[in-house]
Amino acid sequence: MSDAPADDQLVVELTDLVFLAAGRLRQGFNAIAAELGLTPAQALALVNLRGPAPMRDLADILSCDASNVTGIVDGLEKRGLVTRRPDPADRRVKHLVLTTEGSRRRDQLTTEANARAEALFAALGPDRTHLRDLLAVVAARQDPQP
Amino acid sequence: MSDAPADDQLVVELTDLVFLAAGRLRQGFNAIAAELGLTPAQALALVNLRGPAPMRDLADILSCDASNVTGIVDGLEKRGLVTRRPDPADRRVKHLVLTTEGSRRRDQLTTEANARAEALFAALGPDRTHLRDLLAVVAARQDPQP
DNA sequence: TGTAGATACTTGAGCAACTCAACTATTGAG
DNA sequence: CTCAATAGTTGAGTTGCTCAAGTATCTACA
């Protein structure tokens, strides 16, 4: 059995550091979103819109209620970044399609967010692959506790 | 110069993994908070209350507006977990003091949250120290971009 | 075919968590 | 003594979310 208090301390440190890194990344993302006139949720939806896809799919990706997506997409549509296109094969479904401007804004968002992330991880140098591998092990765990 | 597209891909992976790990940790924390009848913000405030401290300090720790703390502490006080004690030396200040029940609930929260975090990081084995060291490098960076 | 149950989306009510501006009470510095 | 700064509160407003209910449509099966 290993040293329990030291173990505890390590887990606390890990938790704090993960939250800190995520916080920096999110803060950067939100700042760019704001520059582009988007709320964080709208920006998050936008970067997850590649091809045309039903609204339901977006709700699944964002793992939130469908009614939430309605509001977020309303905002994107009002800004002319996205349109709802009815699916002829299933008239319940509306596909979300990026407009030209929406596509442009989405690319800008991902590019700039990536640049910020790049800057954040730059200090690691080649160890970045190592960090990824370690985090991948954590990610591979099934959701613990019901 | 290194391979730009591959670099980009790595940064995207790192970003996703950090968000995923943070998401799991937060989800676990919020679940425990809910079990204890606390909202996430209340739980976060509670774990950051050690000794008696001015409300201002808590606002700084949580890096949020002072008026936000007022509401959160109202909730904790209504649940009997915390009391406001006026500072005799500076009558503008109110110190937040944990009640016995508040202390108990706080310990429970930290203990259980730690157990969940422990479970999340368990798959790493001894590599946990390595992960911490890498994340510490990231954390050491000054906030990039103004 | 007809109908019962599932599914996609919307609407409305409501809550949590936040910010900002304005206010009161108090303190500290000149 | 006065004036700017600070601690805390209040109220208005926003965002992001959930849940319940409703409409329209689809699917399966008896």
Automatic annotation (TrEMBL), chains A, B:
It comes from the Bacteria. Keywords: DNA-binding, Transcription, Transcription regulation. InterPro entries: HTH_MarR-typ (IPR000835), MarR/SlyA-like (IPR039422), Tscrpt_reg_MarR-type_CS (IPR023187), WH-like_DNA-bd_sf (IPR036388), WH_DNA-bd_sf (IPR036390). SUPFAM superfamilies: Winged helix' DNA-binding domain (SSF46785). The keyword Transcription regulation applies. Residues 11-143 form the HTH marR-type domain. The keyword DNA-binding applies. This is MarR family transcriptional regulator.
